[in-house]
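Q: I'm teaching a short session on how sequence maps to structure, and I want students to see two examples side by side rather than one. Could you give me a first protein with its sequence written out and its structure tokens following it? Keep the formatting plain so it prints cleanly on a handout.
A: Of course. Example one:
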Amino acid sequence: MIPAVMPTYARADLAFERGEGAYLFGTDGRRYMDLIAGIGVCALGHSHPHLVQTLQDQAAKLWHTSNLYRIPGGERLAQRLVDATFADTVFFTNSGAEAWEGATKLVRKYHYTRGNPKRWRIITVTSSFHGRTLAAISAAKGEKLIKGFGPLVDGFDQVAWGNMNELRAVITDETAAICIEPIIGEGGIKVSSPEYLRELRRVCDEFGLLLFFDEIQCGYGRTGKFFAHEWAGITPDVMCIAKGIGGGFPLGAFMATEEAACGMTPGTHGSTYAGNPLAMAVGNAVLDVVLADGFIAGVERTGQHFKAELEALVKRHPTVLQEVRGTGLILGLKCVQPSDEIVVDLRAAGLLTVGAGENVVRILPPLTIGAAEIAEAIAIFDKVCTARAAKAVANG
């Protein structure tokens, strides 16, 4: 008999009743260190007082009006994002998948508006993840994503991540854009080099393509810059964001230069719920913290410290762990032993992590995590790795 909640997740038998900072408190009475943060969503940790107060205040005033009318909170949030980034304009969404879809529509509309309707195909890269809609899985082409959901949506040409020769070879008169995550998250915490991102910018300029970044997981301060592409000293034409933008509230956005957004006129795109007053109040509250003086620089320092501790961990446990990946507070441990088993062992020991591709344990803690909490996490990692190494020896 099928359960009332559609069984599309292999959920752990664990539930939580409250959270505080970097900790979750289970209905089993245990406290857990949370290095998932809602898969990078709870960027400011759980129950952040500024977010809680803002949500409560706004909830008592106004939740939803629809986009038939002006929403001052959204106008303010959009202007703050424009002032802090490459973008000239922003469209708010309810999720990352919607943000990616909207940005994909913008790409096609741009070329149509500029008199090149035959330009509609987008180049993507292996190991990518852009969401679970039909178009998003068609773009990523991962076997687990697409199995049983064919035929795929046409319009996406995939090349190997990091291979510029292969990328140049697939560009045709129908190519409209290149879409990439500057740091591939689900695919195994793979960091694109600054030179690779700069070369993508050069190719787009050479062929008249739009550069389309997906910073849903790696953006919003997680790398020690507001957005990950800033490390390369270049800017995209369009970008989709989500996760950290709402601090746990469902919120996303796609943003673009004025030129790239030239086709996005009244009636070309919309959403019933997106950009509502409640979401915009929370989005502004998150930005109050993230853009405060010293916050993002602090994330960079914390990330360097955490990565150094993880690198030392790998050296201590070479039969369990292979290498550390990532930067800032988007990190991964590539494992020698099965990463899914290690995730289970860590959870049993009170530490929550999440898997990723290429046998990686993904680490996406709140950006507010401190040195004491990192030390506690490393101690749990040590304990689990020591037990797994001993078990491997015992089993021959």
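Q: Perfect. Now a second example for contrast.
A: Example two:
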Amino acid sequence: MLDSQSVRTPIQPGIRGFDAGKKITGRKRHVLVDTLGFIHSLKVTPADVQDRNGARLLMAILTTAYGWLKLIWADGGYAGQLVGEVARLKRHPQIDLEIAKRGDDVKGFKVLPKRWIVERTFG
């Protein structure tokens, strides 16, 4: 599972950015976990980095490791060109990137089955 989380950093030194979607100044954690929630890869970026660009940093690790991966679930922020980029990874042509989206007709809160794996890791 691939996901990111913005974290407020009001006084801490270091590079920070503004996440306009969540209205937070801070950093964003991009994480790749297995189905049990164990972290396999983690990158911290300023909060203004798009999820897709943060995922590219994680995918760079796949060029040297994790030859056993077959499927990556990702949240809706990773949709778009990233699906094709993962399919073109030279070392891992068999990896599929599947986006876990909630339905357009759903209103309010709804549990997305695979998304809770990474949320539990952040917790």
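Q: What should students look for in example two?
A: Point them to this: The first helix runs from residue 51 to 61. Also worth mentioning: The helical segments are 51-61, 81-87, 115-122.
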